[in-house]
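Re: beginner question about structure tokens

> Can someone show what the tokenized structure looks like for a real chain? I only ever see the sequence side.

Sure, here's an example I had lying around. Input first:
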Amino acid sequence: MDKVVLVTGAGRGIGAAIARAAGKAGYRVVVNYGRSREAAEGVVRDIVSGGGEAIAVQGDVASESDVVRLFQTVDERYGRLDALVNNAGIIGAFGRVDAVTAQSIQELLAINVTGAFICAREAVRRMSTERGGRGGVIVNISSAATTLGAPNEFVPYAASKGAINTMTIGLAKEVGREGIRVIAVEPGLIATEIHESAPAGRLERLGPTVPIGRVAPPEEVAGPVLFLMSDAASYITGTVLRVAGGR
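And the corresponding structure tokens:
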């Protein structure tokens, strides 16, 4: 396989699991990270030691200039882009809506929404058959919180992921005839570092409420994402896949 995938926020958590799985599947992987260079380089080492090819590229998705530079690096290194996984995101501050600040919401939306849009823009410019591209796949990582609402915890985060679902549906309809598929994946309770900012014991408390009876490791999200990127999912676009153990 000579296909290239860019995974944003791939230094750890779900992004890292997706990057590793893509490397095992034969993709050449661009591991984007914002601040955790050491973690991202660790993911690259894992992929390379398994016989794959990967590079780590720094870039804050909240910065348009960083995103443009990130995609230009992909152009220079590989000359093509076949898949984008819009994974970079933050939960933001925990608490009730009556305690949020405008600044915290703006910071959240800059990464979770604006960043995803700008990355999708750059991907479409390269993938679209109307622009000389070969087509491709965009997988947006959303959240089960979109329908659960996350009351008393992170309603702004849930709202930001609702925007991602809407973007997924609209963009899929825009570029479907240009060889590009766009899908969203909604993880549920996943054991990742993102919960470090949550109240202690949150995963242990909520795990038993999942119909399947447990919290999942990030690898259980990576599998569905790799399927959606594959030719086996060639007729799937403009939809949202829930990966949440029945929540």
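Each token stands for a local structural state, so reading them left to right follows the chain. The chain has a mean pLDDT of 96.
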